[in-house]
Amino acid sequence: MANPTHHIDESPIRFDRLVQSLPNWLQRFLPIGGGLAHDHHGKGMFGVTVFLLSESLIFLSFFFTYIALRLTHPNWLPLGVKGPELSQFIIFNTVVLLSSSFVIQAAENALKRHKTIQFRWLLALTSGMGIYFLVAQAIEWSNLNFRLTTGLMGGTFYLLTGFHGLHVLAGIILQLLMLARSFIRGNYNKGHFGVSASTLFWHFVDVIWVVLFSLIYLWRT
């Protein structure tokens, strides 16, 4: 068997040594050893990480816009509008979404141990928790006393939560796709990049919701 081909790292900074000094949980998102030609998983995860960083910039622009608008508009809430309020329903929905990160991580760990049945159940549970979150969010929207056209407050609320909801939906679709692929014989024998990428994407979705939850429901005027 031929030796694996290496891409020589000619940069002035020894990137491979820098990566090896990072925590193990962070190393999984970066290419190692200067980039093995056959290291598709490492390169793929690095690509996903770069993609999520670009998505973070979009969300950050939304967050800063929301903060700037609230700080520069004393009459943020239109007359007669209560705005989104923190409730046990919202808290429970948040707990469900954040807990799903632990479930999907357990699913990936099960797949690494070749426990396919456990992986399927845990991934299906993650998808179900995500679906619950979207349904609960739709119920919340239907009970609000403002709409998208209700001033800056209404426009920014629906833009932020709606854009995040689209990411939740995308994550669910990815999970269901990974679940379907698990029924193809030997599909994950040579690697599970898709599952790792879906897991990382879902963690990203949850972190974004923590920021949104803090801005929308905990920041009171």
Automatic annotation (TrEMBL):
Matches recorded under Gene3D superfamilies: Cytochrome c oxidase, subunit III, four-helix bundle
Record keyword tRNA-binding present: no
TM region(s), chain numbering: 46-69, 89-107, 119-139, 159-179, 200-219
Main location: membrane
Compartment(s): Cell membrane
Keywords, sorted A to Z: Cell membrane, Membrane, Oxidoreductase, Transmembrane, Transmembrane helix
Lipid bilayer topology: Multi-pass membrane protein
Residues in Heme-copper oxidase subunit III family profile domain copies: 46-221
Enzyme class: oxidoreductase
EC number(s) stated in the UniProt entry for this protein: 1.9.3.1
Keyword Nucleus: no
Molecular function, one GO term: oxidoreductase activity
Recorded family membership: Belongs to the cytochrome c oxidase subunit 3 family.
Protein name: Cytochrome c oxidase subunit 3
